[in-house]
Amino acid sequence: MVRRTRPTTPDGGLDVLLEAAGRVRDNMERVIEGKPEVVRLALVVLLAEGHLLIEDVPGVGKTMLAKALARSIDCSVRRIQFTPDLLPSDVTGVSVFDQEAREFEFKPGPVFANLVVGDEINRASPKTQSSLLEAMEERQVTVDGVTYVLETPFMVIATQNPIEMEGTYPLPEAQRDRFTARVSMGYPTPAAELDMLETHGGADPLEELEPVADALEVRKLIEVVRGVHVSDEVKRYVIALAGATRSTPELRLGASPRSSLQLVRAARAAAALEGRDFVVPDDVQALAGPVLAHRLLPTAEAQVSRRTAEDVVADLVARVPVSDVAPRRRA
């Protein structure tokens, strides 16, 4: 049995969250045709105070998704086009000597924004990619020994092409682990592609998007999500899933403790978007693939057998028992 506690979300907080999230979702779906699950995951990551990695082949709408979320929220937005010659200082900023004042003045880089859109992040060198590590984990940037705190909300939405494509560098394990979730856009259905040809053929629908929320409202929604209850049983289930990835012979790198924490945060956001002030195992199971798979490294034998990290996570979700955890959500 689950020990139920008094909800810690503010009175009416879930209703406010559902209304605001609905506005943002509907706004994004005006330009993202036929991908409601992808839009929902982007909202989950935003409300979980995380970062989103969008991976797929060119031309399926990766940058469009990032821009749609950024344009739906009235906050500071900066875009970084990652290229092989991009330097770390081009991301974080640089100290410039002021001749008149006879002192160094810090010029903030594009990372100093509420939403940072990193386009084709794996086309930059690993050194430049690593310039985001501190910002993504600690919400701060250190340049020349001085630390600058980033504003809340702070979210990195990065796109990348599959590593098999020419001119790409694989993201280091530490970099992948900073991303809360990874999503693939996939090709649209024929009906959605037809709608896209009708609506996108004559004009750019992004130009018509107006903000439907602002940074202050997003901060309030994040506070509501923080109050969603996670029982000890559900926490133990998350730990069991993460532990299973560390012991399976199909993986040479399992899930980190950071991934367990981010899975819980994402599950809180998912529960709130369902109108609940508590997390159930179904929330964890639905997010286990997007949150865990990109952090895992299959063994050579698994790769030869064409077993992906997503396949391994799906098998572990099916195998790790939930009978002693919280009751599952009714269909």
Task: Describe what this molecule looks like in 3D.
This protein has 331 residues and is α/β, with parallel strands linked by helices. It folds into 2 domains: 10-215, Rossmann fold (3-Layer(aba) Sandwich), CATH 3.40.50; 227-331, Helicase, Ruva Protein, domain 3, CATH 1.10.8. The chain is 44% helix and 16% strand. The chain has helices spanning 13-28, 36-47, 62-72, 88-92, 126-129, 133-138, 173-178, 190-200, 215-226, 232-247, 257-273, 281-292, 300-304, 309-319, and strands at residues 52-55, 73-74, 77-81, 93-98, 103-108, 115-119, 140-143, 146-149, 155-160, 181-183, 213-214, 251-253, 297-298. The strands form 5 sheets. Strands 3-6-9-1-10 form a 5-stranded parallel β-sheet. A two-stranded parallel ribbon has the order 2-11. A two-stranded antiparallel sheet has the order 4-5. The longest helix is centred in the C-terminal third of the chain and has 17 residues, at 257-273. Mean pLDDT is 87; it is low at 1-7.
